[in-house]
Amino acid sequence: MGLFKNLFGNKQQTEIPKHPLHKEEWDTYFTNVDDKLGPILVDLGLKSIAPINDMGSLVWISIQMNNSREDGLSSSEESEKLYEIEDNLVNGLTQKFDCVYPGRLTSNGHRDLYFYFSDSLLFDKTISEVMVAYPNYEYDFGVKEDTEWGGYLNFLYPLPSQYQSMLNRRVLDNLAEHQDKNELPRKVDHYLYFTTETDRLGFIKAVEDAKFSIENQDKRDDSDFSYTLHLTRVDPVDQNSIDDCTIELSKKAKQFNGYYDGWGCPIQK
């Protein structure tokens, strides 16, 4: 069961107003919930419009798996059926109600789906209509008030370090498509931005011991973060190595009112 396992509620749906549109950006990452490891599938793009003012009801649906792995995650034998149930629930609810689907958690033998509703009346009827086609599956559901969208912003949405790791994985996936051997060291470029020259100099001083080379420092006039910094260092770019490097750079940049913008490197075969 996920974050809101003991919450129940019931209201009435009358008509479907339109909620703000956004560009969906789905991705997955692993996290720990109640000391259990599990992947969260989340629409990162929803953050651009969150919270939606008139969508303050958080509905959860928890489906108990019938053939989970020993670690509580979904098995290959059952995953297709779980995807089918998820698709039918998402389609059934979003087509009948003014609601959005921000994501799901898979952990401890359960698949937990989360929705934000403007009015959660009669959602339970739609859930029952979908689940009647799956009599072998036990499920539970509930609703709670969440006008600040804490369920999405503080639970489903990744922490800064997790988000950076997700971005790193995207780059690594692209490199893998070109047969890159990510364990091989190569010159890696890192890009950062700061609000003042003093902040940039403070950051450079703070990472001196990490032995980065300064490739370029510049100033641009089209942004609040106008002081740029281009660093390089020779490193392998396997997931653990690049995570350690970039997460530390990101944390340090934030301490000096800046931000880490990403990295790139040549392909090594």
Strand-helix topology:
Layout: E1 26-33, E2 36-43, E3 57-64, H1 76-96, E4 99-107, E5 110-117, H2 123-131, E6 139-145, H3 150-156, H4 160-176, E7 186-194, H5 197-206, E8 213-219, E9 227-235, H6 239-255, E10 258-264
Give the integer mean of the pLDDT values.
Answer: 93
Taking the alpha carbons of the first and last residues, their distance comes to 44 Å
- The CATH class label of the largest domain is Alpha Beta
Query: How many domains, as an integer?
Result: 2
What's the gyration radius in Å? 22 Å
Number of helices: 6
Proportion of residues in helical segments = 25-40%
- Overall shape: it is globular
CATH topology heading of the largest domain: Alpha-Beta Plaits
For the largest beta-sheet, the strand count, sense and barrel status come to: 6 strands, antiparallel
Spatial order of the strands forming the largest sheet = 1-2-4-5-3-6
Structural class: alpha+beta
Which sequence of SSEs, written as H and E, runs from N to C? EEEHEEHEHHEHEEHE
By DSSP, the count of extended strands is: 10
CATH architecture of the largest domain: 2-Layer Sandwich
Strand content: 25-35%
- pLDDT < 50 stretches: 3-15
